Amino acid sequence: MATGTADGQVVTPDWMPIEPVAIDGVRVKEIRPVATSTGYLTEIFREEWELDAEPVGQVFQRTLYPGAVTGWHAHAVTTDRLFCCVGSVRISLFDGRKASPTFGAVWHKIIGPLRPAVIIIPPGIWHGVVSIGPETAVLLNLVDKAYAYDQPDHWRLPPDTDHIPYKLV
Q1: CATH architecture of the domain formed by 27-46+57-146+153-157
Q2: pTM as predicted
Q3: For labeling, which of 16, 36, 51, 129 is most exposed (least CB within 10 Å)?
Q4: Three-class secondary structure of residue 47 per DSSP
């Protein structure tokens, strides 16, 4: 047998990923769809999962055409909770919080109905989404604070900005 490097454990015995989140405060809950006689039921968010202690102030859906890129965006006070229910997306995060122990870290996760997960993104973390499948993706966001039409808590950078060490495009 050739010598090499042995793989480390990547899943638990019940096939849940072992994947440390590289950004402080970000939470990921892998979710298992439940087979029913008519299809599948997938829970998206439950208070007792204790992913965060924030309320749900608004739920909205975002569609992304194949290959679409949202660009980088962050919030000063809003917590995002992202869930992809149709298609597949790659969510990329950059920790822009100077006081964070993971300041400057970049992290990615691919999610969709075949591997559902909810990703909790605290304020101050830049995030961008790329639709990576051949179909239109549908992304749900269960924010803790509803969108303020008169003073949006939304800060933007282009997908290829030099301020983040990862290009979304």
Answers
A1: Sandwich (2.60)
A2: 0.87
A3: 36
A4: helix
76 φψ region: left (φ > 0), alpha (ψ -120 to 50), beta (else)? alpha
Q: Which residues contact 106 (CB under 8 A, 6 or more apart)?
A: 22, 92, 93, 94, 95, 164, 165, 166
User: Which residue is associated with the tokens 């604070």?
Assistant: 145
d(CA 6, CA 50): 35
Question: Do 73 and 91 contact (CB within 8 A), yes or no?
Answer: no
pLDDT (tens digit per residue) in 2-56? 678 888 887 788 777 777 767 999 999 988 899 999 999 999 999 999 999 999 9
**Residue 39, Ramachandran bin (φ over 0: left; ψ between -120 and 50: alpha; else beta):** left
Task: Measure Cα distances from 81 to 15, 39, 67, 120, 140 in Å.
Answer: 23, 25, 22, 5, 8
Cα 25 to Cα 96: distance, rounded to the nearest angstrom:
12
Residue with tokens 């990923």: 17
Q: Which residue has the tokens 């992202």?
A: 82
Residue-range domain boundaries for the chain: 27-46+57-146+153-157
